[in-house]
Design goal:
The chain has 2 domains: 101 residues; 37 residues. Helix content is 92%, strand content 0%. The protein has 2 helices and no strands.
Length: 149
């Protein structure tokens, strides 16, 4: 009987120790879960604190980009208009009528045809004068060859 009671006492002690260890493990697990939950909550809070200002900053940057893009486009349009005005003034001073300024489209086409005819006459005159000079040069060469023979 002594052996059986010793075995029962050992089994009871082992059961008590395992119950104590299980309870301690549950406490430790609960503490770890509590720490993880607290950490997760703090991380969410930090994320919210960072996210709001960043989103606000991004919105402000977008607004600024749109504003500056509009300003640059307006400035570009103004400069283009100014350049066109200066171009028209220059063409007027040079006596070249732009298509926008002339009232009748026929006037410009007639003026263009006249210019073409004049330039064609000048070109043909240059060609004939070139032909004449080249003919003179060849005849001069022939006469100099005859003289030397």
């Amino acid at each position: 009987m002594g052996k059986k009671s010793k075995k029962n006492v050992v089994k009871d002690n082992i059961t008590k120790v395992s119950d104590i260890v299980s309870k301690e493990l549950e406490k430790a697990t609960d503490q770890v879960q509590s720490v993880i939950t607290d950490f997760r909550q703090q991380a969410e809070d930090v994320q919210a604190q960072i996210k709001e200002p960043v989103l606000k900053f991004v919105r402000e940057i977008e607004e600024l980009r749109e504003k500056e893009t509009k300003r640059v486009q307006d400035e570009y349009q103004r400069v283009i208009k100014e350049i066109n005005t200066l171009q028209e003034q220059l063409l007027d001073k040079l006596g070249i009528a732009s298509n926008k300024k002339t009232a009748a489209g026929e006037t410009t086409t007639t003026a263009k045809k006249t210019r073409r005819k004049t330039s064609a006459k000048k070109t043909s005159a240059k060609k004939t004068s070139t032909r004449k000079t080249s003919a003179k040069k060849t005849s001069a060469k022939k006469s100099s060859v005859k003289k030397s023979s």
